[in-house]
Amino acid sequence: MRPWPERLDPGLPYPLGATWDGTGVNFAVFSAHAERMEVCLFDDAGKREIARFALPEHSDEIWHGYLPNAMPGLVYGLRAHGPFDPDRGQRFNSNKLLLDPYARAFAGHFRWTDALFGHRVRSARGDLSFDRRDSAPAMLKAVVTEDRSFQDEDCRPRIPWSDTVIYEAHVRGLTRLLEVVPVRERGTFAALCHPYVIGHLRRLGVTTLELMPVHAILQDRHLLERRLSNYWGYNTLSFFAVEPRYLASGVVDEMRRAIRRLHKSGIEVILDVVYNHTCEGDETGPTLSWRGLDNQSYYRLSADDRRYYINDTGTGNTLNLSHPRVVQMVMDSLRYWATTFQVDGFRFDLGMTLGREDTGYDPGAGFFDALRQDPLLSRLKLITEPWDLGLGGYRLGYMPPGFAEWNDKYRETLRRYWRGDGGQRGELARRLSGSADIFGHGSRRPWASVNFITAHDGMTLEDLVSHEARHNEANGENSDGHGETLSANWGHEGPSGAARIIATRETIKRSLLVSLMASLGTPMLLAGDEFGRTQAGNDNAYCQDNEISWLDWSQATSARGEALIEFVSRLSEIRRAFPVLRSPRFLHGRDLIAPGISDIDWFDEKGGFLTEQDWHYPEGRALTMRLAGRRRSRADLIALCINGSDTSLTFCLPDHLPWRVLIDSAQTLSHHERIVQGFVVQAGAAVILAAHLDLAHKG
Q1: Buried b vs exposed e over 505-534: b needs ≥16 C-beta within 10 Å?
Q2: Is 385 a catalytic residue?
Q3: Residue 38: CA atoms inside 13 Å, Cβ hemisphere, count?
Q4: Hey, where are the domains in the chain?
Q5: What is the pLDDT of residue 152?
Q6: Largest CB tally within 10 Å, which of 270, 477, 555, 613?
C-alpha cells in the first residue's frame, strides 16, 4: 500500500476536478454552502476505501487540496459535510459518497439501493427524513485521468452552414446490427468510423453526423424494474465522461479516433448535449453528486418552498444556469469535448432552459453570453431545441444569433400537407422558403431553420406512412409520446402486402424527402429513414435498447431499401449542384434575376400567380416554387412542383424554357427528360426541374 501523507497540501482552486500535473493530483470542488469537504481514495476496483483526506483550503467557494505523488488511475469519491435542512434547500449528507461533477472516467459498478438516497426512502417523513447508511459500496467512483488531445493541428472539416446536411443517429443503435462490423465493436465508437458506415454517409451526401447523447448516464431505477432501459441517454450522470457502453476498448481514445477518421472523410460530428437537468431527479431522487455537493447552487428551487425543485424539464429538476459556477461547469464541459475530441458543434436539448433567469427566459442570459463570446465555441455549429415545459416555454425563432433551431413547425406542416390536410398551401410555402416569418429578423439566415420530417423523438419515416396512431405498448403503456402523430396509414394499419398501398407509401416517403432537400434551411435526416427503418409504430422508443430502436441493415440491401438510398443520394447531388437551393439569404421575390423572373416565385399548377384567395383556398393542394439565382453569365432556375391531391395533375410553368426533370417522387429514379410545357405530376408526388437562362445578352 502506498504511504499516503497525513494531510493534503493546499493545492490550487483551479482547474476544477482532479488534475494530474506530472507529480501529483490537485483536487478542486465547488460548494458555496458545505462546511467541510473530503476526498476518499479507493483501491483500483473501487471496492475498498484506503484513505480519506479533508480538502484543506477554501478559496472563493472552491474547496481544494493537493496529493503529492498521486498518479492517473487513482480512484476517488467525495463527501460533503453540511446541514441537512430540505426546507431551506440544503441536503448535505456525508454518509453519501459523491461523484465529482468533473469526473472523466469511472471505477466500480453502480448498484441501485435505498442507501443511495439522502433520505429514508420508505419513511413516513419522506425526503425530510435522514438516511445514515454509507452509499459507497453501491456507488461509482471517479478515476483520475491524463487528459490527451489531438497532437496535430485542427482538422475539422468546417462545412459551411449553407452546405450542411445533418444525419441524426444513436451511437449504439446505428451499428448494433451491422454484420460487417466485428461483433465486439458493434454499437460503439469503433464501429461508428467503420469504412462501411463512412461510405454510407458519404453516399447519402451527409456532411454532419449528429449523435444522440454520449455523456455517461444513469439507468433509471423504474425502467430497470420493468426490464427496460434508458436507451436515448437524456439522463446525465457526468458531463465529462463518455458512456462506457459506447467504448468497445474501454478507453476514450476510441472516440477520438472515430472523430478523427470521420473528419478525414469530410464528415463533421455534433454532440446532442443535456445541460438542462441531471439524473438525480426531484426531491425524492438519489444523492449522487450535485445534490449532495450544493443543492442550493446547482438546482433551481421553488421560491415559495425551497424544499421543492422547479421542473421546467419534466424530469424532476432543472440546472441553475443563472449561477456562475454552474455556467462554468457547462462551459468547461463544452470546451473539453471541443478541444480534446475536436467535435464540430453541439445540439442543446431543451435550449429554453439554458436561457432561463429568475425573471424567465432571456436570450441575453449569462450562459448564452458566455457561449457567444467564447473564441472557440462561438465558431462551432450550435443548434438548440427552442422549448421546454416551463412557463412560456415555446420560443421558436427567439434563440440568440449564432444558433440554429429545430423547426418543429416545418415538421408539422410537411406532415399535414402530405397526408392530405386542407388549407396548408400558404403555410407550406413559408416552410419551403426557409421560414423567414420565424427566422428572418436581425442578422439570421435561412440555415437557422433546421428542417426535419422525423427525429429520434417520434415516428420514423416508414412508420409515418404506415400507422395512423402510435403503438407504444412495448413501453408498458400507450399514452406516452406524441398524442398527435400527423401520420396516415394509406389504407391499412401497419405493414401491408397490398401493392397499391405499398406504392402510395413509397411515393409519399419520397415526396417528403424531396420537399426536405429542396427547402431553404438546413436539412436533417433521421438515421435509417433512407432505407425504410421501422419502430413498429412506436413514437417514443426512449426505453427500447433492442431491435425496436436498432437499425436493421438488412433492409438497406433489399430492393426497396437500395432504391430509397439511391433516391436520397440523388437528392443530395441536386442540392449540391444548385446553389439556389442552399441560398445563404432569405428570398422574398423582390430581386429580379431576369426579366419576369424573381429570386423566388409561386404558381399554381396552371402556371398562374396565386391570388390572396388562392393562398387561403382550403382545397388548394398543388403548388410550384420557382427559385432563381445568378451564376456568372447565366441564371439557374429550379422548380419544385408538388401535388398533394389524390389525383394526377398537369402542371405548366409560366415561361417557355427547356426544363429538365431532375427527380420525380413517383419514380425511384429520374430519366432526365426534357419538358417545355404541360407535364403530369402524379397524385401525392413532387418533381424537381431545372433550367438555365443565358444572361450574357440580357440588359
Answers
A1: bbbbbbbbbbbbbbbbbbbbbbbbbbbbbb
A2: yes
A3: 16
A4: 588-694
A5: 56
A6: 270
3-class SS at 577?
helix
The one catalytic residue in 210, 294, 349, 457 is: 349
SS3 504: helix
Residue pLDDT, tens place only, 66-120? 999 999 999 999 999 999 999 999 999 999 999 999 999 999 999 999 999 999 9
Containing 624, the helix (H) or strand (E) segment is strand 622-631
Centre a 10 Å sphere on the Cβ of residue 597 and count the other Cβ atoms it contains: 18
pTM, entire model: 0.97
The CA-atom distances, in angstroms, between 698 and each of 589, 601, 634 are 19, 20, 10
Q: In the chain, count of helices (H) and strands (E)?
A: 16, 33
What strands, in cross-sheet order, belong to the sheet with 49-54? 49-54, 36-42, 75-81, 141-143, 106-107
Half-sphere exposure of 620 (CA within 13 A, CB side): 22
Q: Got the DSSP string for 148-189?
A: ---SS--------GGG--EEEE-HHHHHTT-TTS-GGGTTSH
Between the two ends of the chain, the Cα-to-Cα distance in Å is: 88
Determine which one of 220, 243, 344, 385 is catalytic.
385
Is 484 among the residues known to form the active site? no
Q: Which three cell numbers, joined as nine digits, stand for 276?
A: 438542462
Q: Are 94 and 80 in contact (CB under 8 A)?
A: yes
Grid coordinates representing 221? 431505477
Please answer whether residues 456 and 170 qualify as being in contact, where contact means their C-beta atoms are separated by less than 8 angstroms: yes
Amino acid at 21: D
pLDDT tens digits, 224-276: 999 999 999 999 999 999 999 999 999 999 999 999 999 999 999 999 999 99
Q: Is the pLDDT of residue 4 over 50?
A: yes
Is the CATH code 1.25.40.280 the one for domain 588-694? no
